[in-house]
């Protein structure tokens, strides 16, 4: 199977967009450029890119609004470009299903590193394939790797790449407390800082999705001072 190298780049800054596009092309990616979000939804219906690079500050519809629409039709990995120090937009983006973020200005090499990281974690891992084939089952939930969804009692919901990796780690070791650092390392490789709190946002999103899916069953437990655990009912 041919590796998908198509990247959607959505940014209204023409100079920056062309600079980033050229750098990504030199790295072997195929780039489709968009000055705003007006054509992104239609383009997604035509082709599923490997990832979307999406600026938050856009003319007309904001990047956050575009992210909402993307998540209505696709679980494609999304990296948000944010203003430096704008924590509120960054957190909102993560809550809406973004997989990563990068504050402006940035080094194009870091963007490539983050693209490669989200692409790696959007694929099923060797450990999960060896341990559970195409799926993992725990506590009545079934995590489907190829579809990147979680199921409960016949109902199904899509996950972002990072949500999938986090739930995979938790469901692979039910009843075991995993530290925030261990979960971040598993979900995002080494591309995080020691004070990165994005793990909490992703866990919150996972809780919302799994509880809505299961009618309120809480499966992800916070163990204060230690980390998180996938809780299963005692037999």
TrEMBL record:
Domain OmpR/PhoB-type: 133-232
Species this protein is from: Geomonas subterranea
Keyword annotations of the record: DNA-binding, Phosphoprotein, Transcription, Transcription regulation, Two-component regulatory system
Response regulatory domain ranges (all copies): 6-119
PROSITE patterns, per the entry: OMPR_PHOB, RESPONSE_REGULATORY
Pfam family, one: Response_reg
Presence of the UniProt keyword Kinase in the record: no
Name of the protein: Response regulator transcription factor
CDD domains on file: trans_reg_C
DNA-binding residues (ranges): 133-232
Entry-annotated residues carrying 4-aspartylphosphate: 55
The keyword Iron-sulfur is annotated on this UniProt entry: no
Upper lineage: Bacteria, Pseudomonadati, Thermodesulfobacteriota, Desulfuromonadia, Geobacterales
TM regions (residue ranges): none
């Amino acid at each position: 199977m041919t590796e998908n190298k198509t990247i959607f780049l959505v940014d209204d800054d023409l100079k920056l967009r062309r600079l980033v596009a050229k750098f990504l092309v030199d790295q072997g990616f195929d780039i489709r450029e968009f000055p705003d979000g007006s054509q992104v939804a239609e383009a997604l219906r035509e082709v599923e890119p490997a990832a979307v690079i999406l600026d938050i500050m856009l003319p007309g519809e904001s990047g956050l609004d575009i992210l909402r629409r993307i998540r209505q039709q696709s679980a494609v990995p999304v990296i948000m470009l944010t203003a430096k120090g704008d924590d509120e937009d960054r957190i909102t983006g993560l809550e809406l299903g973004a997989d990563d973020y990068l504050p402006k200005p940035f080094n194009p090499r870091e963007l490539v590193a983050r693209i490669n990281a989200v692409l790696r974690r959007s694929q099923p891992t060797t450990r999960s394939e060896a341990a559970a084939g195409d799926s993992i089952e725990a506590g009545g939930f079934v995590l489907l790797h190829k579809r990147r969804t979680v199921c409960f009692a016949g109902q199904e919901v899509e996950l972002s790449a990072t949500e999938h990796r986090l739930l995979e780690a938790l469901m692979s070791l039910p009843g075991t407390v995993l530290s925030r650092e261990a979960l971040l390392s598993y979900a995002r490789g080494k591309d995080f800082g020691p004070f990165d709190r994005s793990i909490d946002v992703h866990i919150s999103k996972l809780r919302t999705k799994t509880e809505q899916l299961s009618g309120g069953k809480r499966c992800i437990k916070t163990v204060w001072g230690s980390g998180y655990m996938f809780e299963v009912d005692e037999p």
